[in-house]
Amino acid sequence: MPQEAENIWAKKASPSPSSEIKPQKSGLDKIRIVGGKRLEGIIPISGAKNAALKLMCAALLTDKSLHLENMPNGLRDIQSQTELMEHMGCVIARERDLMAINAGRITKPEAPYDLVRKMRTGILVLGPLLARFGEVKVSLPGGCAIGSRPIDLHLKGLEAMGAQIKIEQGYIYASAPEGLKGTTINFPKVSVGATENLMMAATLADGTTILNNAAREPEIINLGECLIAMGAKIKGLGTPEITIKGVKELHGAAHDVIPDRIETGTWMIAACLTGGTLRLKNAQLDHLTALVAPLQEAGLNIEQSERDIIVSRNGQPLTGIDITTEPYPGFPTDLQAQFMTMLTLCEGAGMVTETIFENRFMHVPELCRMGANIKTQGNSAIIRGVTGLKGAEVMATDLRASVALVLAALVAEGETTINRIYHLDRGYENIVEKLNNCGADIKRVPPES
Ligand code: EPZ
Q: Residues 314-328: what's their mean pLDDT?
């Protein structure tokens, strides 16, 4: 265990609320950007939010401590997950990008509505808690701006492993008095969350579980490797067939969160749009292969230099490209809005087809208010390039739509005000500072200004 991790744990002598650096600012704040500045400089890439949240859930599988390194700092989603786990009785210590979690004194394996509704990952405590305690009560997560986001695959998978599940008054009551049993689960569609929930549950099940048509995202490999470090027996990570041989118990471990590939991709697109050169520190290009080819085709030079990625525009006009979102290794839905923003300024036209979430075009009307020419039909959008965007007052509607508006504002003529930046705080660490350091004219202002 790294000494630094030991130290923060030693400081945390008694269970008290975590020392996570809480987001101090109001989610109702606005971001104001004056466009037209070329981005030049270095952006440190944070640990991946969508890996970190699941790694925190893995800590629920053992009464020993899990130490996570390269955790993103100050994100609202991480704070909400921390509150949820502390509510259950976990002790969580935090210092810079280190987090130590001990779930040895869980008093209530319960996830109440108020804590789950803020962040859908709350549902991912279901598998680990059920596997370890045999009984759990978790609030249904409810709908979400980008789609209805059902959890049927999570529940059917647990039922196939012997769980009894009933839903009453918005809560899932799950029990497995005899323990979960290994089985073969054939997912009818690829789901990141269901793969993660069932993989965690299966680590403590009796016998072997096979997950067919499993998700292959780097975040799943990161989670699986953490579980292996905790003593789990898992094969096939990164393939559509994951095999988990249940063990009696898991132990503590220290594990690194992978760099955030969606943040990395967002800044690659920013370089393409603004025309500057960015060095993205501690970033992994091999997690972004589906983005690299279209960005190169559009006109971006991309180079991996040890642990950094260097991106710069090739000086030619942006070319229109068609993309379709797909499960990994296909084009990520979480970069669709940002890519569409780039296409608004291309020569000719590009088409974006969204196949993962049914309602993920909410950035379209906002981009059109800034002068973009976009027509949607069903799950496709045709983007006809315009010569320039114009600053406007716009509204952030979900995390990636929000950052897409930031990108648009960076190249728009004049000033853009992005209202209700709550969503950006959920997933982008120090966004204002990172962009300011590269020459952007961006500031955060209170809601009344
Ligand atoms: C994860 O969500 C990510 N969230 C999402 O990122 C990401 O967009 C998504 O995977 C796809 O890559 C986190 O990791 C916290 P899914 P998840 O289960 O796990 C359907 C962001 O911006 N489905 O792979 O909830 C579902 O409705 C967020 O950071 C079912 O039908 O996504 C969707 O159409 C947004 N039944 C598709 O599968 C189920 O039981 C894929 O969803 C589960 C999912």
A: 93
pLDDT band at residue 149 under the 50/70/90 scheme = confident
Looking from the CA of residue 121, the nearest atom of ligand 1 is 15
Atom number in ligand 1 closest to CA 120: 15
Residue nearest atom 5 of ligand 1, based on CA coordinates:
334
Q: Mean per-residue pLDDT for 120-143?
A: 91
- The residue whose CA has the least distance to atom 18 of ligand 1 is 191
Give CA angle at 155 (149, 157), nearest 5°.
Answer: 115
How far, in Å, from the CA of 146 to the mean position of ligand 1?
10
Interacting residues of 371 by C-beta distance below 8 A, sequence separation 6+: 386, 388, 389, 390, 412
* Ligand 1: centre distance to CA 149 (Å): 7
Ligand 1 in reach of 356 Cβ (< 6 A): yes
Among the listed residues 311, 405, 422, the one whose alpha carbon sits nearest the alpha carbon of residue 366 = 405
DSSP letters of 96-115?
A: TTEEEEE-TT----EE-HHH
Q: Mean pLDDT of all residues in the chain?
A: 92
- Interatomic CA distance for residues 209 and 229, integer angstroms: 19
Residues marked as catalytic: 144
Three-state secondary structure readout of 396-411: CCCHHHHHHHHHHHHH
150 lines ligand 1 (CB under 6 A): yes
What is the pLDDT, as a whole number, of residue 6? 56
- Cα 61 to Cα 104, 275, 316, 438: the distances in Å are 9, 47, 52, 42
Q: Specify the ligand 1 atom closest to the Cα of 399.
A: 22
**Ligand 1, atom 17: closest residue by C-alpha:** 193
- Going from the Cα of 116 to the center of ligand 1, the distance in angstroms, rounded, reads 16
- Cβ of 216 below 6 Å from ligand 1: no
Task: Say if residues 140 and 124 touch (Cβ distance below 8 Å).
Answer: no
Angstrom distances, CA of residue 150 to CA of 125, 145, 316, 359:
16, 13, 44, 14
The finding on whether 152 has its CB within 6 A of some atom of ligand 1 is: yes
Chain centroid to CA 75: how far? Answer: 11
Confidence at residue 7, expressed as pLDDT on a 0 to 100 scale: 57
Distance CA 17, CA 5 (A): 18
Q: How many CA atoms, within 13 angstroms, populate the side-chain half-sphere of residue 264?
A: 30
Q: How many whole angstroms separate alpha carbon 444 and alpha carbon 446?
A: 7
